[in-house]
């Protein structure tokens, strides 16, 4: 009895989390929409780029930033070097000497991304602060499109869109691209009915006066900062025409995913005070988009364990166990076939799904041991 209840609850929770929630959002938008009142707005903007040993991309990033279509006298680019020991500082210094819009903030030791952001924001001149990763290249019109949302005084933070480049050159590139398209759909729908839960770390903007100066141990700034903005009574909106691009191969790595997973668990502890004041749609979004995602690895394990117990009790459970075994076998086969040059497209999605959930569990382990540092 209990095994059956646990099995079906776990399966239904997984279906709701990844399929049901996006569909419900799409239905809500049909009946309730709260569009942002955008307009022509050109305040001084500070683009902050945290960097730790980014000599391979920092020159391209600075050139890309200087090509952004925004009034020259109302724009600055701050390269916040977090104790870099390679050629990052020298490259950035060269551009700072050649163009007054470029400012190098060089910190003597590596302290982590949030500490650097806090210091950079305090020194920034902009009324609007835009954050972007060193490895992400920004569409020239992106900043102007982000800033237009701040014409609406109810908006405190705006997220851009994340797109994957050269997806065909990476084993997981297409799956990364699919995942970010999926996330974009969800965030866009959330924004249409109120506020999206979190932003894309590759590109987002905030009113400087609302910047919350999070604790230096914070990992996922792109969640903590927007949610603190919501706590102050402002909206977090989404701009589909503010695009940041990153090559697929730069996005890979289990360690990177585990750090993000650790940050996801950390945000529950950091933001537990949010749960009580959150009401209605925001609480619904928080639980559906964040909390249940974190529970997914446990739903998977419970569903598999309960299915083993129920295997001989009814034909349906023999079928579901066979389906689970096939799913997990596909995930195992994908990297093995990849090593011998065989492209197993059928196994890509199972592998990616298991990868992100395994990384989430590793993130929980890391956060419990207190061994996570988010490099600049």
Question: Could you characterize what this model shows?
Answer:
- With 376 residues, the protein is α/β, with parallel strands linked by helices.
- The protein folds into 2 domains: 2-18 and 294-369, no CATH class; 45-252, Alpha-Beta Complex (Spore Coat Polysaccharide Biosynthesis Protein SpsA, Chain A).
- The protein starts with a helix and ends in a 7-residue tail after the last helix.
- The relative contact order is 0.14.
- The longest helix has 31 residues, at 280-310.
- The chain has helices at 2-31, 58-66, 88-98, 113-123, 142-147, 173-193, 221-231, 254-270, 272-275, 280-310, 315-339, 348-369; strands spanning 45-51, 75-82, 102-107, 128-131, 137-138, 155-165, 204-207, 235-247.
- It is built from 12 helices and 8 strands.
- Strands 3-2-1-4-7-6-8-5 form an 8-stranded mixed beta sheet, with helices on both faces.
- Helix 1 (2-31) packs antiparallel against helix 10 (280-310).
Could you give the topology of this structure?
Elements: H1 2-31, E1 45-51, H2 58-66, E2 75-82, H3 88-98, E3 102-107, H4 113-123, E4 128-131, E5 137-138, H5 142-147, E6 155-165, H6 173-193, E7 204-207, H7 221-231, E8 235-247, H8 254-270, H9 272-275, H10 280-310, H11 315-339, H12 348-369
Helix pairs in contact: 1-6, 1-10, 8-12, 10-11, 11-12
């Amino acid at each position: 009895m209990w095994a059956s209840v646990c099995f079906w609850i776990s399966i239904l929770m997984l279906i709701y989390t990844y399929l049901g929630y996006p569909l419900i959002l799409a239905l809500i938008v049909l009946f309730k929409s709260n569009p942002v009142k955008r307009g022509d707005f050109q305040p001084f903007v500070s683009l902050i780029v945290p960097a730790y040993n980014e000599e391979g991309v920092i020159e391209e990033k600075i050139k890309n930033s200087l090509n952004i279509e925004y009034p020259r006298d109302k724009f600055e680019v701050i390269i916040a070097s977090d104790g870099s020991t390679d050629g990052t500082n020298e490259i950035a210094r060269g551009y700072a000497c050649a163009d007054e819009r470029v400012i190098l903030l060089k910190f003597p030791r590596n302290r982590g991304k949030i500490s650097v952001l806090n210091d950079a924001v305090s020194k920034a001149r902009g009324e609007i602060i835009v954050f972007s990763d060193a490895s992400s290249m920004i569409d020239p019109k992106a900043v102007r499109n982000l800033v237009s949302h701040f014409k609406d005084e109810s908006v405190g933070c705006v997220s851009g869109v994340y797109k994957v480049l050269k997806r065909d050159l990476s084993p997981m590139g297409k799956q990364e691209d699919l995942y970010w398209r999926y996330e974009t759909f969800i965030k866009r729908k959330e924004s249409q009915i109120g506020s999206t839960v979190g932003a894309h770390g590759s590109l987002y903007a905030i009113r400087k006066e609302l910047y919350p100066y999070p604790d230096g141990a914070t990992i996922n700034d792109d969640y903590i900062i927007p949610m603190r903005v919501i706590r102050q009574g402002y909206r977090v909106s989404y701009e589909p025409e503010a695009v940041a691009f990153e090559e697929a191969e730069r996005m890979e790595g289990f360690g990177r995913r585990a750090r993000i997973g650790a940050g996801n668990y950390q945000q529950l502890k950091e933001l537990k005070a949010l749960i009580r004041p959150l009401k209605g749609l925001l609480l619904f979004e928080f639980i559906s988009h964040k909390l249940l995602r974190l529970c997914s690895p446990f739903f998977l394990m419970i569903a598999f364990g309960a299915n083993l117990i129920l295997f001989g009790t009814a034909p349906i459970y023999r079928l579901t166990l066979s389906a689970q075994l096939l799913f997990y076998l596909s995930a195992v086969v994908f990297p093995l076939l990849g090593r011998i040059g065989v492209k197993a497209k059928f196994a890509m999605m199972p592998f990616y799904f298991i990868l992100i959930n395994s990384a989430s569990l590793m993130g929980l382990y890391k956060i419990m041991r207190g061994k996570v540092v988010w490099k600049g």
